[in-house]
Task: structure prediction
Amino acid sequence: MLSQFTDSSVYQRFNELKSGIIYRENKEERICLAFKLIASKIEEIDCIVWISRNHIIHTQTYRDYLDKYSAGFRSKLFVFPIECMSVKDFNFLQINNLVSNKKTFCVIDDSLNIKNAKTKRTRELLKLGPKFSYRLILSELPVSGGLVDYYTQIQFINPQILNMTKFQFNHTYLKKLRTAFQRPRRWSYPEQEVSLIEKLRPYIFENEFADYGGTQNYDIYCDLTPKEEQGYQEEKNLYLERRSQAPFIEIIHRFQHMYTICQNKVKTLFEILSEAKLRKEKSIIYVKFKDEVNFFEECGWFKAGEYAAINGYRNKRDVIKSFMNKADVLICTYGVDNLGLDMQICNNVIFFSQTFDYKLKHQALKGLAQRQTRQDVKIYNLWVKTGLDEMMRQSLLMKENIISNLCTMISKEEALKL
Result:
């Protein structure tokens, strides 16, 4: 049974505020709830502008959800990829024409698509925001990188909630924290998080966050061999000599790529897979680089038919079907569309290489929350003993703590205590 708004005060509140947020892990449920709010305003509006990622809106399942819940007013629904937010793009011109000449209800699925205030698509959407008669944001998580992600979301919902610039927001809600790597970062503290959520609470119409509790989590640290350590240091020095200046993200990818397929980490992975095979369990391995997928396919450890791999060039549905029906191991990069993957059949999730992006790891664990029993699920994080991997580990831990705090504050149970 899909969730629905049963309290009339929800519709009354939306009528007054004309904007809001729905937090829901289940994609179909959040689409269903969005259309319930749309339906309450359907006589007032001329059209619905629905915006999401290009690769999402073109999946058949997603289109089926939109068709199902827009029944009766499908002719008013216009679906656009968020990537089209450019003044030179035909789709953007069409959106601009709609909001300029019609009473429009805008839905953004999901909110993290507009978290970066520096991107052109976010800037253009924020300019269009006041022109929409009604605005609704859908999301699985409140943020993915920290409280700073909230700024653009709130600006789209209602700039008057904060009535401050991004610079003012940073200094009001974030404090400078110097990490062990001497890189100053701005992070929030509970009292700042509570303050912001209380301002936003009237605009939150529904929340249900996934619970991944009950799983067995293992952090495994792997050493570089003396030869690998020497080679890593030499490659780093050579790279930095050639590039006197380089973007931090580029340096991260380059350095991590140098050591990710190290001897002890590969050995540890095969030991985990051997134990899983004895237990007759299936495993998913997440990697960051396509080179890692190629390495596992060519290393000779996996026998034909015992594994399936997604490397961007194969039909993902066929690969997933092979894993579900026959193969014991699925190898894939972060962010692949695992539509149709049943996590009920998988007992081991292995993060072979790490990422700073919390959302990618969150997406990788989708489906675990729906399992009837999670005690038999093992999650392995393989870390290499380098400064970069330790930086990622600390960053992910801080993000996880912030998101956990926000989800708790937003939940209905916590709201009763405040």
In short: Residues 387-410 form the longest helix (24 residues). The CA atoms of residues 344 and 371 lie 6 Å apart. The mean pLDDT is 87. DSSP finds 17 helices and 14 strands in the chain.
